[in-house]
Write a structure and sequence with these properties.
- This protein is mainly alpha-helical.
- It has one domain.
- Helices cover 78% and strands 0% of the residues.
- α6 packs antiparallel against α11.
- The protein is globular and about 55 Å long.
- The two termini are 30 Å apart.
- The mean pLDDT is 81.
Length: 283
């Protein structure tokens, strides 16, 4: 399994290198230089807003599991996980929050559940949007089939909610009593799409807003896959192929996705400070 995992990571890096070697680097640099700085700054300033909203969600989740950590500590814990997730494939570095939780008396099992739940909220939100995106970009019958499958799965969860609540009582009670978790997730993703709209304006992309959001939604799903850090390579290749359908040059798409990667990395650097700032770092 380790060989397979490392092989998948190499694929992402290889794709990114291949895309770079088949494009005009000078044109990419020129495209980047023509983006007005105010759009980059505006995008960057929204990262603390998004991360703070998700930190509030994380704080609510940890409190429901019995943690009495102050919000400031939950904030730093979440920011540290963001940075570690940014530099690891599939954001598996976010699991580094678990040792912090165990220091607060939460069991490893509940720590894992918290990490999984936190991820499920994001995947669930963007997953629903991605179904619509598939319909817009490819086929509404295909989107309807996927939506139908998800609806059946949801119906099964409702029908067997009693058994599920007995197997995972803490998880069930948490989800049932905290509707604010869903609201926080939706608002944070709303700001993410605002970021994309700002960058679209900055790059002057001649691409209608609806298909643009659809492409970037699916690109977000791809970036979560455990292939390369922050979807490097796989996301770039996907966006380049999809943008070509709207006659946007590959150099422009690569400059666009590279900017997203760099801004996201810069935005996550607050988590680097949180990781090394005591008492977060486990001893």
């Amino acid at each position: 399994m380790r060989i397979v995992r490392h092989g998948m990571q190499i694929i992402g890096v290889f794709l990114f290198a291949w895309v770079l070697t088949t494009t005009d680097i000078h044109l990419i640099i020129r495209t980047l230089s023509e983006v007005p700085p105010r759009f980059l700054v505006g995008t960057l300033l929204l990262f603390p807003v998004i991360y703070t909203l998700r930190s509030i969600r994380w704080h609510i989740l940890t409190r429901s599991m019995g943690s009495r950590v102050p919000f400031a500590e939950s904030l730093r814990m979440y920011y540290a996980g963001i940075f570690l997730g940014m530099i690891t494939p599939g954001r598996i570095g976010e699991a580094a929050r678990i040792p912090f939780l165990t220091q607060q008396g939460i069991t490893v099992r509940r720590g894992v559940l918290l990490t999984v739940l936190d991820r499920i909220f994001d995947i669930g939100c963007i997953g629903i949007v991605s179904v619509v995106a598939i319909g817009i970009l490819w086929s509404w019958p295909l989107a309807a089939m996927i939506a139908g499958t998800l609806a059946i799965m949801g119906l099964l969860l409702v029908l067997y909610r009693g058994k599920i609540s007995s197997m995972f009582p803490v998880v069930y009670s948490t989800l049932r009593s905290n509707s604010s978790l869903t609201l926080l997730t939706m608002v944070s993703w709303g700001f993410y799409f605002v970021q994309l709209a700002i960058l679209r304006q900055g790059f002057a992309l001649d691409l209608p807003l609806v298909p643009f959001f659809s492409i970037m939604t699916l690109a977000g799903i791809i970036s979560i896959m455990p292939i390369a850090p922050a979807g490097l390579g796989t996301r770039d290749a996907f966006v380049a192929v999809m943008f070509l359908r709207y006659h946007i040059p590959t150099e422009t798409s690569i400059a666009f996705t590279a900017t997203i990667f760099l801004l996201t990395f810069i935005g996550s650097l607050m988590g680097l400070y949180a990781w090394f700032h005591p008492p977060l770092k486990p001893h």
